[in-house]
Structures are given as structure tokens and as C-alpha cells.
């Protein structure tokens, strides 16, 4: 059975295991090697089942533990050319790591991983869809200022999706962040708000994505219940029934041990 384990989600680190009980891949490695290992163990995932690590972009909340983790466990690192170069410049990967550019898609074991670019303030950020050994598909779509048609299509062809619901626009505007940072987050290359996320989910449910998870929630500018209710209200207003037409939850920010079968 296909499963996703959202280990970490948010500005303090991001990492997801996707696969089956026998094999899987890690999307992002944004915590220390030790923390990643501990989280995997708590979730009951054997680190030896990981076939490769995919990195969405060079921000440290997505690749902090990458260099050590990938070297220790002898794992190939896949990312866009721009992300690999940016990580090399910052020493986040070194010559000791096995790296490879993913263009459109790549096979790892009995899985297939598809890449689509995301609009974000990074060199060449992207998101990934993983087809698990049993054919089920999961996508992690966070760190994007706006939703794009190619990412929408990728999500629509998935069974499970993590979609970014980063901030409540009003909380961000009234909050303590400096003006420049607020502008960056709200820009087309920043992060997707609760409101923008909610506006997308109806289409995803309609095209058959029955398991939805909100990810990369800001601790400063969001509240999990607010993110959930913003999306739930929109879906219910469209006549869609939670538990029947879809499931919706938020990803735990730290050390998530919940295994989501899909
Ligand atoms: Zn991030
Ligand atoms: Zn980022």
C-alpha cells in the first residue's frame, strides 16, 4: 500500500517520505541528519528503504541535513540544475555527494518521480510527484507564490497532495515581520496563502484528489485551525463533503509520525 509520512513541514524544516513499506524516496531533507533519522525511526520507516533524496530548492529549511544524511546512507541526490549549483555554492552538497539533475522525470526502483517548476525566490525551484510501486501518486506542492497550470495538472493526476497553505494574509499584514519580508512572502515568488490555497482545492477534489493535506504553515502568521477552516469553508460551499468526497488535514510542523495511506 502506498504511504506518505510527513516528517517535517514549515520554516523549521521540510521532509516527506513517500513510497511503500518496502521502498520509497525522501522529498527534501530540511533537518539535521540525526533528526531525520529519529523521525523516520519513530514513524517506523527503515532508512534502508529510501532509494534517493529529491530536493525542491536550496533554502535551508529543505536541505539542511542533506549533505550528511545522503552521504551517510549512500543516497543519490536529485534536484534541478540550478538547485544543485546553488547548494554547491553554499556547501549544502559537496563532491562527496552523488548528485544528478532531474529534468522531467526519473525512475527510482519501482517508482517514478516527475518534476514541475514552481514560482519561488530560489534559483530553480520545483515540486515532485511520486508514483509509488502500486501505481498510486502523491505530490508535495509547497514554496510557491502562485499556483501554475503545470503544477495544477500534476496535482490533478495525483491521489494524495500536500498543498501549501502558508499564511493568513491579514495575520501576515498585521504581524511583526519587517515590510520587506512581508512583501517577499506575498509576492508571486513567495508562499501560497490560506486564501489562495482554498481557491484551488475544489478543482483538485473534482478531478479526483481525495486526500489533501495543508503544508508549510507559518508558525508566526497562521493557525492550523484557521488554515483548515478557510479551505473547508470553500469546499463545503461547493457542495463537497469532508470524509465522503475528500479528507483534509494539516501536516505536523515537527517530527510527524503519522503515516497516511493513500
Ligand atoms: Zn520552505
Ligand atoms: Zn523556500
In short:
The chain is an alpha/beta fold and 262 residues long. It has nine helices and 14 strands. A hairpin with a 5-residue loop joins strand 9 (126-131) and strand 10.
What are the main properties of this structure?
globular; alpha/beta; 14 strands; Metallo-beta-lactamase, Chain A; 262 residues; 7-stranded mixed beta sheet; 9 helices; binds zinc ion
Structural class: alpha/beta
**What level of helicity do the residues show?**
25-40%
Q: Which hetero ligands occur in this complex?
A: zinc ion
Secondary-structure element series: EEEHEHHEHEEEEEHEHHHEHEE
Looking at the overall shape, the CATH architecture is 4-Layer Sandwich
How big is the Rg?
Answer: 17 Å
Query: What's the name of the CATH homologous superfamily?
Result: Ribonuclease Z/Hydroxyacylglutathione hydrolase-like
Please report the distance between the alpha carbons of the first and last residues. 7 Å
Q: Which residue ranges are poorly predicted, with pLDDT under 50 across at least 5 consecutive positions?
A: none
Q: How would a crystallographer describe the biggest sheet?
A: 7 strands, mixed
Can you give a write-up of this model?
- It is a single chain.
- This protein is an alpha/beta fold.
- It has a single domain (3-261), classed as Metallo-beta-lactamase, Chain A (4-Layer Sandwich).
- 30% of the residues lie in helices and 25% in strands.
- The chain is built from nine helices and 14 strands.
- The chain has a seven-stranded mixed β-sheet.
- Strand 7 and strand 8 form a beta hairpin.
- Helix 8 packs across helix 9 (224-237).
- It is globular and about 50 Å long.
- The model has no long low-confidence stretch (mean pLDDT 97).
- One zinc ion (ZN) is lined by residues 57, 59, 120, 122, 143.
Amino acid at each position: 500500500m502506498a504511504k506518505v509520512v510527513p516528517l517535517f513541514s514549515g520554516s523549521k524544516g521540510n521532509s516527506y517520505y513517500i513510497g511503500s513499506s518496502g521502498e520509497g524516496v525522501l522529498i527534501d531533507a530540511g533537518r539535521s541528519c540525526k533528526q531525520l533519522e529519529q523521525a523516520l525511526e519513530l514513524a517506523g520507516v527503515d532508512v534502508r528503504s529510501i532509494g534517493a533524496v529529491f530536493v525542491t530548492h536550496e533554502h535551508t529549511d529543505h536541505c539542511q541535513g542533506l549533505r550528511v544524511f545522503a552521504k551517510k546512507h549512500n543516497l543519490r541526490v536529485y534536484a534541478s540544475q540550478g538547485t544543485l549549483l546553488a547548494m554547491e555554492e553554499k556547501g549544502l552538497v559537496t563532491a562527496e555527494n552523488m548528485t544528478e539533475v532531474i529534468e522531467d522525470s526519473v525512475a527510482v526502483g519501482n517508482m517514478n518521480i516527475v518534476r514541475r517548476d514552481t514560482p519561488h525566490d530560489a534559483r530553480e525551484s520545483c515540486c515532485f510527484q511520486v508514483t509509488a510501486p502500486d501505481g498510486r501518486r502523491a505530490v508535495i506542492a509547497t514554496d510557491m507564490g502562485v499556483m501554475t497550470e503545470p503544477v495544477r495538472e500534476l496535482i490533478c493526476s495525483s491521489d494524495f497532495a500536500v498543498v501549501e497553505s502558508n499564511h493568513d494574509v491579514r495575520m501576515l499584514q498585521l504581524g511583526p515581520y519587517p515590510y520587506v519580508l512581508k512583501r517577499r512572502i506575498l509576492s508571486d515568488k513567495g508562499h501560497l496563502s490560506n486564501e489562495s490555497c482554498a481557491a484551488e482545492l475544489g478543482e483538485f477534489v473534482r478531478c479526483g484528489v481525495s486526500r489533501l493535506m495543508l503544508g508549510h504553515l507559518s508558525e508566526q502568521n497562521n493557525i492550523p485551525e484557521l488554515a483548515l477552516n478557510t479551505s473547508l469553508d470553500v469546499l463545503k460551499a461547493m457542495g463537497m463533503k469532508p470524509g465522503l468526497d475528500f479528507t483534509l488535514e494539516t501536516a505536523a510542523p515537527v517530527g510527524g509520525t503519522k503515516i497516511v495511506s493513500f
